[in-house]
Amino acid sequence: MNLNRIYAIVMRNLYVWPRGMERFMWSVGWPMVSLFSWGLTAAYLQSISMSSISITTLILGGIIFWSITTRAQLETTVNFMDEVWNKNLINIFSSPLTIGEFLAATIILDIIKFVISTSILTVIAYLLYSLNIIGFGWYLPLFIINLLIFGWTVGFFIIGMMLRLGGRNIQELAWALLGFVAPFSCVYYPITSLPVWAQKIAVLLPTTYVFEEMRRFMFSHTVLWENLLLSLLLNLFYLILSLIFLFLMFEKARETGGLTKLEG
Amino acid sequence: MVEVKNLTKKFGPAKTSGLIAVDDISFSIKTGEIVGLLGPNGAGKTTTIDMLIGILKPSSGSITIFGKPFEQNRRDILQEMNFSAAYIHLPWKMRIWENLYTFGRLYQVKNYKVKSEELMEEFMLTDLRNKFIKDLSSGQQARVYLCKAFINDPKLLLLDEPTAFMDPDIADTLRKLIVQKVKTTGTTVIFTSHNMAEVTELCDRVIFLNKGKIVDEDTPEALAKKIGSCRVHLMIIDGQKRTLSWCEEQKITANAYGRYVTVELKEKEIATFLSKLADIGVEYDEISIDKPTLEDFFLKVTREGKI
Question: What structural domains and CATH numbers belong to chain B?
Protein backbone atom coordinates (compact mmCIF):
# COMPACT_ATOMS: atom_id res chain seq x y z
CA MET A 1 0.00 0.00 0.00
CA ASN A 2 1.41 3.33 -1.08
CA LEU A 3 0.08 6.36 0.78
CA ASN A 4 0.83 8.79 -2.08
CA ARG A 5 -1.32 6.82 -4.48
CA ILE A 6 -4.12 6.46 -1.92
CA TYR A 7 -3.93 10.23 -1.32
CA ALA A 8 -4.11 10.80 -5.09
CA ILE A 9 -7.41 8.94 -5.38
CA VAL A 10 -8.84 10.56 -2.24
CA MET A 11 -8.02 14.03 -3.56
CA ARG A 12 -9.26 13.21 -7.08
CA ASN A 13 -12.68 12.44 -5.58
CA LEU A 14 -12.69 15.34 -3.14
CA TYR A 15 -12.05 17.76 -6.02
CA VAL A 16 -15.26 16.69 -7.76
CA TRP A 17 -17.45 16.00 -4.71
CA PRO A 18 -18.81 19.54 -4.27
CA ARG A 19 -19.31 19.93 -8.04
CA GLY A 20 -21.79 17.17 -8.69
CA MET A 21 -25.36 17.61 -7.52
CA GLU A 22 -25.81 13.84 -7.78
CA ARG A 23 -22.92 13.21 -5.37
CA PHE A 24 -24.41 15.63 -2.85
CA MET A 25 -27.83 14.01 -3.21
CA TRP A 26 -26.46 10.51 -2.64
CA SER A 27 -24.42 11.60 0.36
CA VAL A 28 -26.77 13.99 2.11
CA GLY A 29 -29.74 15.00 -0.04
CA TRP A 30 -31.76 11.82 -0.27
CA PRO A 31 -31.21 10.79 3.38
CA MET A 32 -32.40 14.30 4.33
CA VAL A 33 -35.50 13.95 2.17
CA SER A 34 -36.23 10.57 3.80
CA LEU A 35 -35.71 12.08 7.21
CA PHE A 36 -38.20 14.88 6.53
CA SER A 37 -40.89 12.79 4.90
CA TRP A 38 -40.68 9.78 7.22
CA GLY A 39 -40.27 12.02 10.23
CA LEU A 40 -43.53 13.76 9.43
CA THR A 41 -45.25 10.45 8.67
CA ALA A 42 -44.01 8.94 11.92
CA ALA A 43 -45.07 12.02 13.88
CA TYR A 44 -48.57 11.71 12.44
CA LEU A 45 -48.76 7.98 13.23
CA GLN A 46 -47.57 8.76 16.73
CA SER A 47 -50.34 11.29 17.18
CA ILE A 48 -53.07 8.79 16.31
CA SER A 49 -51.43 5.85 18.08
CA MET A 50 -52.27 4.72 21.62
CA SER A 51 -48.80 3.22 21.98
CA SER A 52 -46.30 4.67 24.40
CA ILE A 53 -43.46 3.56 22.16
CA SER A 54 -41.98 6.42 20.10
CA ILE A 55 -42.70 5.52 16.50
CA THR A 56 -40.78 8.61 15.36
CA THR A 57 -37.66 7.51 17.17
CA LEU A 58 -37.89 3.98 15.80
CA ILE A 59 -38.31 5.07 12.21
CA LEU A 60 -35.86 7.95 12.23
CA GLY A 61 -33.24 5.85 14.00
CA GLY A 62 -33.71 3.26 11.28
CA ILE A 63 -33.42 5.86 8.53
CA ILE A 64 -30.24 7.42 9.90
CA PHE A 65 -28.55 4.09 10.61
CA TRP A 66 -29.60 2.50 7.32
CA SER A 67 -28.34 5.56 5.45
CA ILE A 68 -24.89 4.80 6.89
CA THR A 69 -24.90 1.41 5.14
CA THR A 70 -26.45 2.57 1.87
CA ARG A 71 -24.12 5.55 1.64
CA ALA A 72 -21.06 3.40 2.37
CA GLN A 73 -22.09 1.00 -0.38
CA LEU A 74 -22.91 3.76 -2.85
CA GLU A 75 -19.68 5.60 -2.13
CA THR A 76 -17.67 2.48 -2.88
CA THR A 77 -19.43 1.58 -6.12
CA VAL A 78 -19.97 5.10 -7.41
CA ASN A 79 -16.28 5.96 -7.02
CA PHE A 80 -15.50 2.99 -9.24
CA MET A 81 -18.31 3.73 -11.70
CA ASP A 82 -17.25 7.36 -11.90
CA GLU A 83 -13.92 6.22 -13.34
CA VAL A 84 -15.84 4.05 -15.83
CA TRP A 85 -18.19 6.89 -16.81
CA ASN A 86 -15.24 9.26 -17.25
CA LYS A 87 -13.32 6.66 -19.29
CA ASN A 88 -10.52 7.08 -16.78
CA LEU A 89 -10.35 3.50 -15.50
CA ILE A 90 -7.57 2.50 -17.92
CA ASN A 91 -5.61 5.62 -17.03
CA ILE A 92 -5.58 4.88 -13.32
CA PHE A 93 -5.02 1.13 -13.61
CA SER A 94 -2.23 1.55 -16.15
CA SER A 95 -0.49 3.61 -13.46
CA PRO A 96 1.17 1.82 -10.52
CA LEU A 97 -2.09 2.07 -8.53
CA THR A 98 -3.27 -1.27 -7.14
CA ILE A 99 -6.88 -2.26 -6.70
CA GLY A 100 -6.16 -2.51 -2.95
CA GLU A 101 -5.00 1.11 -2.87
CA PHE A 102 -8.08 2.16 -4.82
CA LEU A 103 -10.32 0.44 -2.26
CA ALA A 104 -8.40 1.92 0.65
CA ALA A 105 -8.91 5.38 -0.84
CA THR A 106 -12.61 4.63 -1.23
CA ILE A 107 -12.90 3.68 2.44
CA ILE A 108 -11.14 6.87 3.54
CA LEU A 109 -13.44 8.93 1.34
CA ASP A 110 -16.43 7.19 2.76
CA ILE A 111 -15.36 7.91 6.30
CA ILE A 112 -14.86 11.60 5.48
CA LYS A 113 -18.28 11.85 3.86
CA PHE A 114 -19.88 9.74 6.59
CA VAL A 115 -18.74 12.22 9.25
CA ILE A 116 -20.14 15.14 7.26
CA SER A 117 -23.43 13.62 6.15
CA THR A 118 -24.27 11.81 9.39
CA SER A 119 -23.50 14.95 11.40
CA ILE A 120 -25.97 16.90 9.26
CA LEU A 121 -28.65 14.20 9.62
CA THR A 122 -28.04 13.92 13.36
CA VAL A 123 -28.47 17.65 13.88
CA ILE A 124 -31.63 17.74 11.74
CA ALA A 125 -33.14 14.74 13.58
CA TYR A 126 -32.41 16.41 16.90
CA LEU A 127 -33.72 19.84 15.95
CA LEU A 128 -36.88 18.65 14.19
CA TYR A 129 -37.81 15.50 16.07
CA SER A 130 -35.75 15.63 19.29
CA LEU A 131 -34.05 12.37 18.34
CA ASN A 132 -30.65 12.29 20.04
CA ILE A 133 -28.43 9.79 18.20
CA ILE A 134 -25.50 10.73 20.44
CA GLY A 135 -27.60 9.28 23.27
CA PHE A 136 -26.51 5.82 22.15
CA GLY A 137 -23.24 6.64 23.85
CA TRP A 138 -20.41 4.15 23.50
CA TYR A 139 -22.65 1.73 21.62
CA LEU A 140 -22.86 4.19 18.75
CA PRO A 141 -19.35 3.53 17.33
CA LEU A 142 -20.08 -0.21 17.38
CA PHE A 143 -23.32 0.28 15.49
CA ILE A 144 -21.59 2.57 12.99
CA ILE A 145 -18.60 0.27 12.39
CA ASN A 146 -20.88 -2.68 11.68
CA LEU A 147 -23.09 -0.67 9.35
CA LEU A 148 -20.13 0.81 7.46
CA ILE A 149 -18.42 -2.56 7.01
CA PHE A 150 -21.58 -4.11 5.63
CA GLY A 151 -21.97 -1.22 3.17
CA TRP A 152 -18.38 -1.63 1.99
CA THR A 153 -18.83 -5.39 1.71
CA VAL A 154 -21.85 -5.05 -0.56
CA GLY A 155 -20.06 -2.31 -2.54
CA PHE A 156 -17.01 -4.49 -3.12
CA PHE A 157 -19.24 -7.37 -4.21
CA ILE A 158 -21.00 -5.11 -6.74
CA ILE A 159 -17.66 -3.89 -8.16
CA GLY A 160 -16.62 -7.54 -8.52
CA MET A 161 -19.84 -8.27 -10.39
CA MET A 162 -19.28 -5.29 -12.68
CA LEU A 163 -15.76 -6.46 -13.43
CA ARG A 164 -16.97 -9.97 -14.16
CA LEU A 165 -20.11 -9.23 -16.15
CA GLY A 166 -19.60 -5.65 -17.34
CA GLY A 167 -22.36 -3.75 -19.06
CA ARG A 168 -24.69 -0.99 -17.97
CA ASN A 169 -27.31 -3.36 -16.56
CA ILE A 170 -25.00 -4.62 -13.85
CA GLN A 171 -24.39 -1.03 -12.77
CA GLU A 172 -28.04 -0.93 -11.68
CA LEU A 173 -27.03 -3.25 -8.83
CA ALA A 174 -25.37 -0.24 -7.22
CA TRP A 175 -28.80 1.24 -6.59
CA ALA A 176 -30.87 -1.90 -6.25
CA LEU A 177 -29.01 -4.54 -4.28
CA LEU A 178 -29.31 -3.04 -0.80
CA GLY A 179 -32.98 -2.44 -1.50
CA PHE A 180 -33.40 -6.21 -1.59
CA VAL A 181 -31.37 -6.64 1.59
CA ALA A 182 -33.22 -3.96 3.59
CA PRO A 183 -36.41 -5.96 4.34
CA PHE A 184 -34.32 -8.79 5.79
CA SER A 185 -32.19 -6.39 7.84
CA CYS A 186 -35.23 -5.48 9.96
CA VAL A 187 -34.46 -1.77 9.77
CA TYR A 188 -37.86 -0.61 11.04
CA TYR A 189 -39.36 -3.70 12.71
CA PRO A 190 -38.20 -6.60 14.89
CA ILE A 191 -37.05 -9.86 13.36
CA THR A 192 -40.12 -11.60 14.80
CA SER A 193 -42.25 -9.56 12.38
CA LEU A 194 -40.76 -11.47 9.47
CA PRO A 195 -42.16 -14.79 8.22
CA VAL A 196 -40.14 -17.77 9.42
CA TRP A 197 -38.40 -18.34 6.09
CA ALA A 198 -37.32 -14.70 6.00
CA GLN A 199 -36.06 -14.88 9.59
CA LYS A 200 -33.64 -17.60 8.46
CA ILE A 201 -32.13 -15.13 6.00
CA ALA A 202 -32.25 -12.24 8.46
CA VAL A 203 -30.09 -14.03 11.06
CA LEU A 204 -27.33 -14.31 8.45
CA LEU A 205 -27.17 -10.55 7.99
CA PRO A 206 -24.95 -8.51 10.34
CA THR A 207 -27.22 -5.48 9.96
CA THR A 208 -30.17 -7.35 11.52
CA TYR A 209 -28.35 -7.51 14.87
CA VAL A 210 -27.48 -3.83 14.75
CA PHE A 211 -31.11 -2.79 14.25
CA GLU A 212 -32.35 -5.27 16.86
CA GLU A 213 -29.91 -3.80 19.38
CA MET A 214 -30.75 -0.25 18.31
CA ARG A 215 -34.40 -0.91 19.22
CA ARG A 216 -33.42 -2.72 22.40
CA PHE A 217 -31.41 0.31 23.47
CA MET A 218 -34.28 2.65 22.64
CA PHE A 219 -36.66 0.65 24.80
CA SER A 220 -34.44 -0.50 27.66
CA HIS A 221 -31.12 1.38 27.40
CA THR A 222 -29.28 -1.92 27.23
CA VAL A 223 -27.75 -3.96 24.43
CA LEU A 224 -26.72 -7.58 24.10
CA TRP A 225 -22.97 -7.43 23.49
CA GLU A 226 -22.93 -10.92 22.06
CA ASN A 227 -25.28 -9.77 19.28
CA LEU A 228 -22.99 -6.89 18.36
CA LEU A 229 -20.01 -9.25 18.45
CA LEU A 230 -21.85 -11.72 16.23
CA SER A 231 -22.65 -8.87 13.85
CA LEU A 232 -18.97 -7.90 13.74
CA LEU A 233 -17.83 -11.49 13.12
CA LEU A 234 -20.36 -11.96 10.34
CA ASN A 235 -19.28 -8.63 8.87
CA LEU A 236 -15.61 -9.57 8.89
CA PHE A 237 -16.42 -12.94 7.32
CA TYR A 238 -18.44 -11.34 4.49
CA LEU A 239 -15.90 -8.55 4.06
CA ILE A 240 -13.09 -11.05 3.54
CA LEU A 241 -15.25 -13.04 1.11
CA SER A 242 -16.19 -9.93 -0.88
CA LEU A 243 -12.57 -8.75 -1.02
CA ILE A 244 -11.41 -12.15 -2.26
CA PHE A 245 -14.20 -12.10 -4.84
CA LEU A 246 -13.30 -8.59 -5.99
CA PHE A 247 -9.56 -9.33 -6.28
CA LEU A 248 -10.31 -12.53 -8.22
CA MET A 249 -12.69 -10.69 -10.54
CA PHE A 250 -10.13 -7.92 -11.10
CA GLU A 251 -7.59 -10.52 -12.23
CA LYS A 252 -10.27 -12.25 -14.28
CA ALA A 253 -11.08 -8.91 -15.94
CA ARG A 254 -7.41 -8.59 -16.88
CA GLU A 255 -7.75 -11.98 -18.60
CA THR A 256 -11.03 -11.33 -20.37
CA GLY A 257 -10.51 -7.68 -21.21
CA GLY A 258 -13.25 -6.71 -18.75
CA LEU A 259 -11.58 -3.42 -17.81
CA THR A 260 -11.57 -2.15 -21.38
CA LYS A 261 -15.05 -3.53 -22.04
CA LEU A 262 -16.43 -1.62 -19.04
CA GLU A 263 -15.37 1.64 -20.65
CA GLY A 264 -16.52 0.61 -24.11
CA MET B 1 14.07 -1.84 -23.46
CA VAL B 2 11.06 -3.94 -24.55
CA GLU B 3 11.26 -7.61 -25.39
CA VAL B 4 8.11 -9.41 -26.48
CA LYS B 5 8.30 -13.15 -27.10
CA ASN B 6 5.62 -15.39 -28.58
CA LEU B 7 2.88 -13.12 -27.25
CA THR B 8 -0.62 -14.50 -27.78
CA LYS B 9 -4.01 -13.27 -26.65
CA LYS B 10 -7.11 -15.35 -27.09
CA PHE B 11 -10.60 -14.27 -26.09
CA GLY B 12 -13.57 -16.50 -25.54
CA PRO B 13 -13.99 -19.93 -23.98
CA ALA B 14 -10.90 -22.16 -23.97
CA LYS B 15 -12.94 -25.16 -25.16
CA THR B 16 -13.72 -23.46 -28.44
CA SER B 17 -10.96 -21.85 -30.45
CA GLY B 18 -12.30 -18.37 -29.53
CA LEU B 19 -10.92 -15.21 -31.08
CA ILE B 20 -7.15 -14.93 -31.44
CA ALA B 21 -6.52 -11.19 -31.25
CA VAL B 22 -2.73 -11.49 -31.06
CA ASP B 23 -1.11 -14.58 -32.49
CA ASP B 24 2.39 -15.53 -31.35
CA ILE B 25 4.14 -12.23 -32.01
CA SER B 26 7.73 -11.41 -31.03
CA PHE B 27 9.54 -8.11 -31.31
CA SER B 28 12.00 -5.96 -29.44
CA ILE B 29 12.40 -2.22 -29.06
CA LYS B 30 15.64 -0.42 -28.28
CA THR B 31 16.01 2.54 -25.95
CA GLY B 32 15.12 5.82 -27.63
CA GLU B 33 13.36 4.23 -30.59
CA ILE B 34 9.98 5.40 -31.82
CA VAL B 35 8.21 2.32 -33.08
CA GLY B 36 4.88 2.32 -34.85
CA LEU B 37 2.40 -0.50 -34.52
CA LEU B 38 0.52 -0.39 -37.77
CA GLY B 39 -2.29 -2.44 -39.16
CA PRO B 40 -5.96 -2.40 -40.13
CA ASN B 41 -8.81 -2.49 -37.61
CA GLY B 42 -8.75 -5.75 -35.69
CA ALA B 43 -5.05 -6.32 -36.43
CA GLY B 44 -4.25 -6.58 -32.70
CA LYS B 45 -2.56 -3.22 -32.13
CA THR B 46 -4.66 -2.07 -29.18
CA THR B 47 -4.68 -5.57 -27.67
CA THR B 48 -0.88 -5.55 -27.79
CA ILE B 49 -0.78 -2.10 -26.18
CA ASP B 50 -3.24 -3.24 -23.49
CA MET B 51 -0.96 -6.16 -22.66
CA LEU B 52 2.06 -3.86 -22.52
CA ILE B 53 0.34 -1.61 -19.96
CA GLY B 54 -0.92 -4.54 -17.91
CA ILE B 55 -4.63 -3.96 -18.45
CA LEU B 56 -4.80 -7.29 -20.25
CA LYS B 57 -3.03 -10.51 -19.36
CA PRO B 58 -1.43 -12.45 -22.22
CA SER B 59 -2.78 -15.96 -22.88
CA SER B 60 0.80 -17.06 -23.47
CA GLY B 61 4.20 -15.62 -24.19
CA SER B 62 6.27 -13.12 -22.28
CA ILE B 63 6.80 -9.38 -21.99
CA THR B 64 10.05 -8.04 -20.60
CA ILE B 65 10.36 -4.29 -20.04
CA PHE B 66 13.49 -2.58 -18.67
CA GLY B 67 15.00 -6.05 -18.43
CA LYS B 68 12.35 -7.25 -15.96
CA PRO B 69 9.50 -9.72 -16.57
CA PHE B 70 6.39 -7.56 -16.71
CA GLU B 71 3.89 -9.61 -14.73
CA GLN B 72 6.20 -10.11 -11.75
CA ASN B 73 7.36 -6.47 -11.70
CA ARG B 74 4.19 -4.76 -12.87
CA ARG B 75 4.18 -1.90 -10.32
CA ASP B 76 7.86 -1.02 -10.73
CA ILE B 77 7.63 -1.08 -14.51
CA LEU B 78 4.40 0.94 -14.70
CA GLN B 79 6.05 3.56 -12.51
CA GLU B 80 8.48 4.24 -15.38
CA MET B 81 5.91 4.08 -18.17
CA ASN B 82 2.93 6.10 -19.28
CA PHE B 83 0.09 5.79 -21.71
CA SER B 84 -2.31 7.91 -23.69
CA ALA B 85 -5.05 7.00 -26.14
CA ALA B 86 -7.71 8.86 -28.05
CA TYR B 87 -10.42 6.67 -26.52
CA ILE B 88 -9.29 7.17 -22.92
CA HIS B 89 -10.29 10.41 -21.24
CA LEU B 90 -9.71 12.26 -18.01
CA PRO B 91 -12.46 13.15 -15.51
CA TRP B 92 -14.60 15.82 -17.09
CA LYS B 93 -15.48 17.68 -13.92
CA MET B 94 -11.85 18.16 -12.94
CA ARG B 95 -9.69 21.11 -13.86
CA ILE B 96 -6.52 20.63 -15.89
CA TRP B 97 -4.22 21.22 -12.91
CA GLU B 98 -6.27 18.89 -10.70
CA ASN B 99 -5.91 16.08 -13.22
CA LEU B 100 -2.18 16.61 -13.56
CA TYR B 101 -1.67 16.81 -9.79
CA THR B 102 -3.65 13.57 -9.40
CA PHE B 103 -1.47 11.70 -11.86
CA GLY B 104 1.64 13.34 -10.43
CA ARG B 105 0.71 11.84 -7.08
CA LEU B 106 -0.22 8.47 -8.61
CA TYR B 107 3.19 8.24 -10.28
CA GLN B 108 4.88 9.63 -7.13
CA VAL B 109 6.48 12.49 -9.02
CA LYS B 110 8.65 14.60 -6.75
CA ASN B 111 7.60 18.26 -7.06
CA TYR B 112 4.57 17.20 -9.05
CA LYS B 113 3.15 20.72 -8.80
CA VAL B 114 6.20 22.25 -10.46
CA LYS B 115 6.26 19.47 -13.04
CA SER B 116 2.57 20.02 -13.85
CA GLU B 117 3.11 23.75 -14.32
CA GLU B 118 6.12 23.09 -16.59
CA LEU B 119 4.12 20.70 -18.74
CA MET B 120 1.18 23.09 -18.97
CA GLU B 121 3.62 25.77 -20.14
CA GLU B 122 5.23 23.42 -22.66
CA PHE B 123 1.89 22.27 -24.06
CA MET B 124 0.42 25.80 -24.11
CA LEU B 125 -2.17 25.14 -21.42
CA THR B 126 -1.11 27.56 -18.69
CA ASP B 127 -3.90 30.02 -19.47
CA LEU B 128 -6.41 27.19 -19.35
CA ARG B 129 -5.14 25.53 -16.17
CA ASN B 130 -8.34 26.26 -14.22
CA LYS B 131 -10.67 25.05 -16.95
CA PHE B 132 -12.62 21.83 -16.58
CA ILE B 133 -11.79 19.08 -19.08
CA LYS B 134 -15.40 19.20 -20.31
CA ASP B 135 -14.98 22.85 -21.33
CA LEU B 136 -11.92 22.23 -23.54
CA SER B 137 -11.86 21.68 -27.28
CA SER B 138 -10.77 18.25 -28.48
CA GLY B 139 -7.35 19.63 -29.41
CA GLN B 140 -6.89 21.15 -25.96
CA GLN B 141 -8.04 17.90 -24.33
CA ALA B 142 -5.52 15.96 -26.39
CA ARG B 143 -2.76 18.27 -25.14
CA VAL B 144 -3.86 17.65 -21.54
CA TYR B 145 -3.75 13.88 -22.18
CA LEU B 146 -0.21 14.31 -23.45
CA CYS B 147 0.73 16.32 -20.36
CA LYS B 148 -0.60 13.43 -18.28
CA ALA B 149 1.45 11.02 -20.41
CA PHE B 150 4.66 12.96 -19.73
CA ILE B 151 3.98 13.73 -16.05
CA ASN B 152 6.43 11.09 -14.78
CA ASP B 153 9.08 11.59 -17.48
CA PRO B 154 8.39 8.05 -18.68
CA LYS B 155 11.20 5.95 -20.08
CA LEU B 156 8.60 4.18 -22.19
CA LEU B 157 5.53 5.89 -23.59
CA LEU B 158 2.65 4.14 -25.32
CA LEU B 159 0.47 6.29 -27.54
CA ASP B 160 -2.57 4.58 -29.00
CA GLU B 161 -3.92 6.66 -31.87
CA PRO B 162 -3.28 9.96 -30.06
CA THR B 163 -4.43 12.06 -33.00
CA ALA B 164 -7.53 10.08 -33.93
CA PHE B 165 -10.72 12.12 -34.46
CA MET B 166 -8.74 15.35 -34.89
CA ASP B 167 -8.69 17.74 -37.78
CA PRO B 168 -5.40 17.85 -39.73
CA ASP B 169 -4.31 21.18 -38.25
CA ILE B 170 -4.70 20.08 -34.62
CA ALA B 171 -3.18 16.67 -35.39
CA ASP B 172 -0.18 18.40 -36.94
CA THR B 173 0.31 20.64 -33.90
CA LEU B 174 0.06 17.64 -31.63
CA ARG B 175 2.56 15.64 -33.69
CA LYS B 176 5.04 18.48 -33.50
CA LEU B 177 4.62 18.65 -29.73
CA ILE B 178 5.15 14.91 -29.41
CA VAL B 179 8.27 14.96 -31.62
CA GLN B 180 9.71 17.94 -29.78
CA LYS B 181 9.11 16.39 -26.37
CA VAL B 182 10.30 12.91 -27.31
CA LYS B 183 13.46 14.21 -28.96
CA THR B 184 14.39 16.33 -25.95
CA THR B 185 13.70 13.60 -23.40
CA GLY B 186 14.92 10.57 -25.36
CA THR B 187 11.75 8.71 -24.46
CA THR B 188 11.13 5.35 -26.11
CA VAL B 189 7.73 5.41 -27.80
CA ILE B 190 5.35 2.78 -29.08
CA PHE B 191 2.87 4.47 -31.31
CA THR B 192 -0.24 3.30 -33.13
CA SER B 193 -2.07 5.25 -35.79
CA HIS B 194 -4.14 4.85 -38.90
CA ASN B 195 -2.50 7.91 -40.38
CA MET B 196 0.31 6.64 -42.61
CA ALA B 197 1.91 10.06 -43.10
CA GLU B 198 2.02 10.44 -39.34
CA VAL B 199 3.69 7.07 -38.85
CA THR B 200 6.20 7.82 -41.61
CA GLU B 201 6.97 11.18 -40.03
CA LEU B 202 7.27 10.01 -36.44
CA CYS B 203 8.49 6.43 -36.40
CA ASP B 204 11.99 5.06 -36.72
CA ARG B 205 10.58 1.64 -37.33
CA VAL B 206 7.19 0.09 -38.07
CA ILE B 207 5.84 -3.27 -36.95
CA PHE B 208 3.04 -4.17 -39.30
CA LEU B 209 0.30 -6.33 -37.85
CA ASN B 210 -2.50 -8.06 -39.69
CA LYS B 211 -4.98 -10.53 -38.18
CA GLY B 212 -2.93 -10.71 -35.00
CA LYS B 213 0.35 -11.59 -36.68
CA ILE B 214 3.41 -9.56 -37.55
CA VAL B 215 3.47 -9.31 -41.34
CA ASP B 216 6.60 -7.21 -41.64
CA GLU B 217 8.91 -5.00 -39.65
CA ASP B 218 11.21 -2.28 -40.99
CA THR B 219 11.66 1.47 -41.37
CA PRO B 220 8.66 3.22 -42.99
CA GLU B 221 10.76 3.97 -46.08
CA ALA B 222 11.98 0.38 -46.40
CA LEU B 223 8.45 -0.98 -46.06
CA ALA B 224 7.23 1.40 -48.75
CA LYS B 225 10.08 0.32 -51.04
CA LYS B 226 8.92 -3.28 -50.74
CA ILE B 227 6.01 -2.32 -52.97
CA GLY B 228 8.65 -2.28 -55.71
CA SER B 229 7.02 -0.06 -58.31
CA CYS B 230 6.48 3.65 -58.81
CA ARG B 231 3.58 5.21 -60.65
CA VAL B 232 4.49 7.35 -63.64
CA HIS B 233 1.73 9.70 -64.81
CA LEU B 234 1.98 11.14 -68.31
CA MET B 235 -0.26 13.53 -70.20
CA ILE B 236 0.06 12.21 -73.73
CA ILE B 237 -0.22 14.73 -76.59
CA ASP B 238 0.32 12.22 -79.35
CA GLY B 239 0.60 8.40 -79.26
CA GLN B 240 -1.59 7.19 -76.39
CA LYS B 241 -2.55 3.98 -78.22
CA ARG B 242 1.10 3.29 -79.10
CA THR B 243 2.05 3.76 -75.46
CA LEU B 244 -0.63 1.35 -74.23
CA SER B 245 0.08 -1.33 -76.81
CA TRP B 246 3.82 -1.12 -76.17
CA CYS B 247 3.16 -1.49 -72.42
CA GLU B 248 0.94 -4.49 -73.14
CA GLU B 249 3.71 -6.10 -75.21
CA GLN B 250 6.20 -5.52 -72.40
CA LYS B 251 3.69 -6.73 -69.76
CA ILE B 252 3.82 -3.39 -67.97
CA THR B 253 0.69 -2.36 -66.08
CA ALA B 254 -0.75 0.79 -67.67
CA ASN B 255 -4.08 2.55 -67.31
CA ALA B 256 -5.51 5.33 -69.39
CA TYR B 257 -7.96 7.98 -68.25
CA GLY B 258 -8.68 10.86 -70.60
CA ARG B 259 -5.42 12.08 -72.01
CA TYR B 260 -3.47 10.64 -69.12
CA VAL B 261 -1.70 7.31 -68.85
CA THR B 262 -0.44 5.86 -65.58
CA VAL B 263 2.26 3.24 -65.74
CA GLU B 264 3.61 1.10 -62.89
CA LEU B 265 7.37 0.65 -63.12
CA LYS B 266 10.37 -0.09 -60.97
CA GLU B 267 12.28 3.10 -60.22
CA LYS B 268 15.36 1.98 -62.20
CA GLU B 269 13.21 1.22 -65.29
CA ILE B 270 11.79 4.74 -65.63
CA ALA B 271 14.64 6.16 -67.73
CA THR B 272 14.51 3.23 -70.18
CA PHE B 273 10.74 3.56 -70.42
CA LEU B 274 10.86 7.26 -71.27
CA SER B 275 13.62 6.68 -73.81
CA LYS B 276 11.50 3.99 -75.47
CA LEU B 277 8.53 6.35 -75.68
CA ALA B 278 10.76 8.82 -77.54
CA ASP B 279 11.87 6.02 -79.89
CA ILE B 280 8.30 5.19 -80.87
CA GLY B 281 7.42 8.86 -81.35
CA VAL B 282 5.20 9.43 -78.34
CA GLU B 283 4.88 13.06 -77.27
CA TYR B 284 3.92 13.98 -73.73
CA ASP B 285 3.49 17.27 -71.97
CA GLU B 286 3.34 16.56 -68.24
CA ILE B 287 5.09 13.90 -66.24
CA SER B 288 4.88 13.10 -62.53
CA ILE B 289 6.29 10.21 -60.58
CA ASP B 290 4.70 8.86 -57.38
CA LYS B 291 7.11 6.91 -55.24
CA PRO B 292 5.54 4.11 -53.20
CA THR B 293 4.39 5.14 -49.73
CA LEU B 294 3.63 3.38 -46.50
CA GLU B 295 -0.02 3.72 -47.44
CA ASP B 296 0.59 1.65 -50.59
CA PHE B 297 2.23 -0.98 -48.41
CA PHE B 298 -0.69 -0.84 -45.95
CA LEU B 299 -3.28 -1.25 -48.70
CA LYS B 300 -1.42 -4.06 -50.41
CA VAL B 301 -0.91 -6.07 -47.24
CA THR B 302 -4.41 -5.41 -45.99
CA ARG B 303 -6.05 -6.38 -49.28
CA GLU B 304 -3.76 -9.17 -50.39
CA GLY B 305 -2.55 -10.39 -46.99
CA LYS B 306 1.10 -10.32 -48.09
CA ILE B 307 3.61 -8.30 -50.04
Answer: 2-224 (3.40.50.300), 229-291 (3.30.70.120)
Cβ distance B103 to A98 less than 8 Å, yes or no, reads no
Q: What is the pLDDT of residue A235?
A: 96
Q: Which residue of B has its CA nearest to A21?
A: B93
Contact call for B78 and A88, based on CB within 8 A: no
B90-141 pLDDT per residue, tens = 999 999 999 999 999 999 999 999 999 999 998 889 999 999 999 998 888 9
Q: Any chain B CB within 8 A of the CB of A1?
A: no
Please tell me the distance from the alpha carbon of residue A75 to that of residue A98, in angstroms, as a whole number.
Answer: 18
Cβ neighbours of residue B179 under 8 Å, at least 6 residues apart? B201, B202
Task: Select from A73, A39, A69, A43 the least CA-distant residue to A187.
Answer: A69
Q: Above 80 in pLDDT, residue B2? A: yes
Structural domain boundaries in chain A: 3-263
pLDDT score at B81? 95
Q: How far apart (Å, rounded) are the C-alpha atoms in residues A4 and A13?
A: 14
DSSP labels, B77-140? HHHTEEEEETT----TTSBHHHHHHHHHHHTT-TTHHHHHHHHHHHTT-GGGTTSBGGGS-HHH
Burial of B57: CB neighbours in 10 Å, binned 0-12, 13-18, 19+: middle
Residue of A nearest to B149 (CA): A91
Nearest CB partner across the interface for B102, out of A11, A251, A257: A11
| Residues of chain A below pLDDT 70 | 51-53, 167, 264
8 A C-beta contact, residue B123 and residue B177: yes
Please count the helices (runs of H) and the strands (runs of E) in chain B: 11, 14
Geometric angle at alpha carbon A245, from A240 and A246, rounded to 5°: 100
- Residues of A numbered 54-83 whose beta carbons fall under 8 angstroms of chain B's beta carbons: which are they? 82-83
| Inter-chain residue contact B50 with A88, CB threshold 8 Å | no
CA A125 to chain centre: 19
